[in-house]
Write the C-alpha coordinates for this entry.
Amino acid sequence: MNVVTLLLGCNIGNCESTFIETLNALEKKCGRLMNKSSLYKTAAWGYSKQNDFLNQVIVFETALAPIELLSQTSKIEFELGRSRIIANGPRNIDIDILFYNDLEVITNNLVIPHPRLHLRKFTLIPLNEIIPNFIHPVYRMSIADLLKACKDDSQVTKLEKE
Protein backbone atom coordinates (compact mmCIF):
# COMPACT_ATOMS: atom_id res chain seq x y z
CA MET A 1 0.00 0.00 0.00
CA ASN A 2 1.00 3.58 -0.64
CA VAL A 3 0.63 6.55 1.67
CA VAL A 4 -0.58 9.73 0.01
CA THR A 5 -1.15 13.19 1.38
CA LEU A 6 -3.90 15.32 -0.13
CA LEU A 7 -5.05 18.90 0.37
CA LEU A 8 -8.76 19.70 0.24
CA GLY A 9 -9.87 23.23 -0.54
CA CYS A 10 -13.31 24.86 -0.85
CA ASN A 11 -14.79 28.36 -0.86
CA ILE A 12 -18.27 27.86 -2.37
CA GLY A 13 -21.24 26.36 -0.55
CA ASN A 14 -21.12 24.36 2.67
CA CYS A 15 -17.44 23.41 2.65
CA GLU A 16 -17.53 21.27 5.78
CA SER A 17 -20.32 19.16 4.28
CA THR A 18 -18.44 18.98 0.97
CA PHE A 19 -15.31 17.76 2.78
CA ILE A 20 -17.34 14.97 4.41
CA GLU A 21 -18.70 13.96 0.97
CA THR A 22 -15.19 14.13 -0.44
CA LEU A 23 -13.75 11.92 2.31
CA ASN A 24 -16.55 9.39 1.78
CA ALA A 25 -15.90 9.33 -1.98
CA LEU A 26 -12.15 9.01 -1.48
CA GLU A 27 -12.63 6.07 0.89
CA LYS A 28 -15.01 4.43 -1.58
CA LYS A 29 -12.78 4.89 -4.65
CA CYS A 30 -9.21 5.37 -3.46
CA GLY A 31 -8.38 3.75 -0.15
CA ARG A 32 -8.46 4.23 3.61
CA LEU A 33 -8.27 7.47 5.56
CA MET A 34 -5.37 7.34 8.02
CA ASN A 35 -5.28 10.88 9.43
CA LYS A 36 -6.67 14.36 8.87
CA SER A 37 -5.81 17.83 10.03
CA SER A 38 -8.09 20.36 11.59
CA LEU A 39 -9.96 22.71 9.28
CA TYR A 40 -8.25 26.00 8.45
CA LYS A 41 -9.68 29.23 7.06
CA THR A 42 -7.33 31.01 4.67
CA ALA A 43 -7.36 33.96 2.32
CA ALA A 44 -7.55 33.11 -1.38
CA TRP A 45 -4.20 32.56 -3.10
CA GLY A 46 -3.58 33.97 -6.57
CA TYR A 47 -6.98 35.26 -7.67
CA SER A 48 -7.89 37.25 -4.55
CA LYS A 49 -11.35 38.61 -5.48
CA GLN A 50 -13.18 35.68 -3.92
CA ASN A 51 -14.26 34.26 -0.57
CA ASP A 52 -11.77 32.82 1.93
CA PHE A 53 -11.04 29.11 1.61
CA LEU A 54 -11.50 26.23 3.98
CA ASN A 55 -8.55 23.83 3.78
CA GLN A 56 -7.72 20.45 5.27
CA VAL A 57 -4.87 17.99 4.78
CA ILE A 58 -5.61 14.28 4.80
CA VAL A 59 -3.37 11.23 4.75
CA PHE A 60 -4.64 8.21 2.84
CA GLU A 61 -3.54 4.65 2.22
CA THR A 62 -4.11 3.57 -1.37
CA ALA A 63 -3.27 0.81 -3.82
CA LEU A 64 -3.70 3.22 -6.73
CA ALA A 65 -0.73 4.37 -8.80
CA PRO A 66 -0.20 8.16 -8.95
CA ILE A 67 -1.92 8.67 -12.32
CA GLU A 68 -4.85 6.46 -11.24
CA LEU A 69 -5.14 8.52 -8.05
CA LEU A 70 -5.20 11.75 -10.06
CA SER A 71 -7.89 10.28 -12.31
CA GLN A 72 -10.04 9.31 -9.32
CA THR A 73 -9.61 12.64 -7.50
CA SER A 74 -10.53 14.50 -10.72
CA LYS A 75 -13.65 12.32 -11.09
CA ILE A 76 -14.63 13.02 -7.48
CA GLU A 77 -14.20 16.77 -8.04
CA PHE A 78 -16.40 16.54 -11.15
CA GLU A 79 -19.06 14.42 -9.40
CA LEU A 80 -19.22 16.98 -6.59
CA GLY A 81 -19.79 19.80 -9.08
CA ARG A 82 -16.32 21.25 -9.61
CA SER A 83 -15.97 23.45 -12.67
CA ARG A 84 -12.71 25.04 -13.80
CA ILE A 85 -13.55 28.51 -15.12
CA ILE A 86 -10.92 30.82 -13.61
CA ALA A 87 -7.40 29.63 -12.72
CA ASN A 88 -7.13 29.66 -8.91
CA GLY A 89 -10.75 30.87 -8.87
CA PRO A 90 -13.69 29.97 -6.65
CA ARG A 91 -14.50 26.28 -6.29
CA ASN A 92 -16.66 24.02 -4.25
CA ILE A 93 -13.91 21.38 -4.05
CA ASP A 94 -10.27 21.09 -4.93
CA ILE A 95 -8.20 17.98 -4.24
CA ASP A 96 -4.44 18.37 -4.63
CA ILE A 97 -2.00 15.50 -4.35
CA LEU A 98 0.80 16.79 -2.13
CA PHE A 99 2.87 13.64 -1.54
CA TYR A 100 2.85 10.04 -2.75
CA ASN A 101 5.01 8.04 -0.34
CA ASP A 102 8.35 9.82 -0.58
CA LEU A 103 8.45 9.67 -4.37
CA GLU A 104 9.05 12.35 -6.94
CA VAL A 105 6.67 11.98 -9.90
CA ILE A 106 6.83 14.19 -12.98
CA THR A 107 4.46 13.71 -15.91
CA ASN A 108 2.68 16.07 -18.30
CA ASN A 109 -0.40 16.08 -16.03
CA LEU A 110 1.01 15.50 -12.57
CA VAL A 111 3.91 16.70 -10.45
CA ILE A 112 4.45 15.19 -7.00
CA PRO A 113 5.39 16.59 -4.54
CA HIS A 114 3.05 19.44 -5.32
CA PRO A 115 5.40 22.04 -6.82
CA ARG A 116 4.18 25.01 -4.74
CA LEU A 117 3.36 23.45 -1.37
CA HIS A 118 6.53 24.83 0.25
CA LEU A 119 5.42 28.38 -0.65
CA ARG A 120 1.97 28.22 0.94
CA LYS A 121 1.18 28.42 4.64
CA PHE A 122 -2.37 27.17 3.98
CA THR A 123 -0.74 23.88 2.99
CA LEU A 124 2.20 23.82 5.38
CA ILE A 125 0.29 24.62 8.58
CA PRO A 126 -2.16 21.68 8.33
CA LEU A 127 0.70 19.44 7.15
CA ASN A 128 2.71 20.52 10.18
CA GLU A 129 -0.21 19.60 12.44
CA ILE A 130 -0.24 15.95 11.37
CA ILE A 131 3.16 15.12 9.78
CA PRO A 132 5.68 17.73 11.02
CA ASN A 133 8.66 15.37 10.69
CA PHE A 134 7.91 14.15 7.16
CA ILE A 135 10.89 14.94 4.92
CA HIS A 136 10.03 16.64 1.61
CA PRO A 137 11.54 14.34 -1.04
CA VAL A 138 12.90 17.20 -3.16
CA TYR A 139 13.92 19.85 -0.63
CA ARG A 140 15.11 17.31 1.98
CA MET A 141 13.61 19.38 4.78
CA SER A 142 10.95 18.45 7.32
CA ILE A 143 7.51 20.02 7.04
CA ALA A 144 8.24 21.89 10.29
CA ASP A 145 11.43 23.36 8.80
CA LEU A 146 9.68 24.24 5.51
CA LEU A 147 7.04 26.09 7.52
CA LYS A 148 9.71 28.02 9.45
CA ALA A 149 11.38 29.00 6.15
CA CYS A 150 8.12 29.92 4.38
CA LYS A 151 7.89 33.61 3.44
CA ASP A 152 4.10 33.53 2.92
CA ASP A 153 2.56 36.08 5.28
CA SER A 154 -1.07 35.19 4.67
CA GLN A 155 -3.39 34.57 7.63
CA VAL A 156 -4.26 30.92 8.29
CA THR A 157 -6.76 30.38 11.11
CA LYS A 158 -7.48 27.02 12.69
CA LEU A 159 -11.21 26.53 13.18
CA GLU A 160 -12.27 25.40 16.60
CA LYS A 161 -14.43 22.29 16.85
CA GLU A 162 -18.05 22.98 17.70
